[in-house]
Amino acid sequence: MNGDGMRLRTALAPLVFAGVASAHPGEPPAPHDLWSAWNLSPFTLPTLLLVGFLYWRGYTRLRRAGARPGLRNRAVVRPWQALCFLWGLLALHVALVSPLDALGSSLLSAHMAQHIILLVVAPPLLVLASPGYVLPWAFPLGTRRRVAGWWHGRGVGRLTGPISRALFTPLAASLLYAAVVWVWHAPGLYQAALTVETVHVLEHLTFLGGAYLFWWLLLAPLGRWRTHHGVGVATLFFASVQGSALGALMAFSPTVWYPAYEVTAPSWGTTALADQQLAGLIMWMPVGTVYVLLACAFLWRWLRSADLAESSAPPHPAQARLGGG
Question: Which partner from 95, 168, 207, 325 sits 20 to 30 angstroms from 239, CA to CA?
């Protein structure tokens, strides 16, 4: 299989989650009806359940195949990865089905919490679960072969090769990730996402897609295209700086960025400006801490791998002569 084609297929597989990126319908909820404001659209929850079933089916088939001697896929996908997928789906459930989704139309801080789940919580959990490898196993072998034949027979893999080579780099993924975050928090687009369902769906799609690519290059368990530890430190540092900058600007701004919340925030016992400051702190402090801790973990692994490489390297000839006396 063409390497670029496989790369693109693996990275784009999670776009099956596109259907769950729905906007919250109806009017902003008041405090007394929050717990009845679940998103029961006929598409979101069924899509989550369907994807969960397909992953479970593919995972069980892989485990059965891996139990046979002589197969290369033995132990590629482990139980902890299936748990990561479950937690990732639960995170999407909280963000898109629970009352948090509707509350985001009344409070900017709630909407920011939803965005953080879509950017920093669900995507890395899903990446660690290797859905691009597991989900195809949910389908019969003949179906997988026909899709692969169509992919190569139509030249799709060759056509997308240049795109994958340009996009699947730490720099491009980081810039795309930052652009998604900053562009959608511009007042005009953000206000449009609050009032137009199609725009809100597009917002969630780009959040999930950009974040998945970013975290896939950092954390992909199969690791063939995973970023080097040193580059990962720089990538996470960049993500921390740009996310913290946006959060700080929001928290310290003397004016309200999104006038729609001036109407809805008072019913929750706060003002639009105070709610905006809380939203900025949510983006700034907790998310920045996650990035910094992960950067420290990458740095530790980088230094540890360097120490292991040095200890396993053969001695220099001069040292060997001295050691041999």
Answer: 95
